[in-house]
Amino acid sequence: MNKKTNEELQALVNKAASGDKKSLETLVAEVQDTVFNLSLRMLGTFSDAEDATQDILLKIITHLSSFRGDSTFKTWVFSIAANHLKDYKKHMFAGMPLSFEYYGDDIENGKIQDLPDLTQNVEKDLLAEELKMSCTNVMLQCLDPESRCIFILGTMFKLDSRIAAEIFKMTPEAYRQRLSRIRKKMADFLGQYCGEYGCGGCKCKDRLNYAIQSHRLNPLQLDYVTAEEIPVQTIIDVKNAMEDVDDLSQDFSFCKSYKSSERAKHLIQEFLDSTQLSVIRNS
């Protein structure tokens, strides 16, 4: 699907706000992968990201009439999603926030030896890839919600610093400096501990049974390796403006993008087809 220009999106917003269902469906399709990937990185698990994506898309749908065109439609979407996710309390890690100290201690002192084979005959390379994606994603939970959101928007979506600064209500220079510090913190941790992306001794293939035993990996539910990836250039094309946000440009290759899940799409489509939507619009 070709991404729409700002003018095309504005025309769709006007039609959708006036009750045109086809335009509304097109708008939702245009932003749902963006919302899902932001939710996944902010919350750490596919199930929580699916629920948050539904919440955010419903908020976008029911507040279309409040969009005045002062910014681009996608900037408006990013702002709604970011603000919703920064305060989101229903995800797995909300009640037990992680820290880099905890993660580092677990890597160094977790007892990974002498465990039984718990892989249930699932190919170990697949499990190692799943653990790698899950681990580096959950590692983002070591950042406070706002820092996590800044890192994701700046590193994964490469959002223009002027747009990001508007979302976080700070100056572009303050945003760039904050992003640079967060990137360095992430890069330092990966460099010290991770054997996949840095020089550390932690190797996913060595920790499979430990991860399964501690319920961090389920051999029968591999979300990452079964999800459909979005080409890197496509996610870059989502935004309408780009710039170099700082000179610390490590390749955070774990920041892959995925198609939004079929469950999330199905739930939103059910809502679009329901009488509930017209009741909300007419209230």
Characterise the protein shown here.
By secondary structure, the protein is mainly α. It has 14 helices and two strands. α1 packs across α2, α3 packs across α4 and α8 crosses α9. The two termini are 34 Å apart. About 6% of the residues have low confidence.
In quaternary terms, these chains amount to single chain
Number of helices: 14
Mean pLDDT: 85
- End-to-end distance, in Å? 34 Å
* Spatial strand order of the main sheet: 1-2
Strand-and-helix sequence, N→C? Answer: HHHHHHHHHHHEHEHH
List keywords for this structure.
283 residues, mainly alpha, 2 strands, two-stranded antiparallel sheet, 14 helices, globular
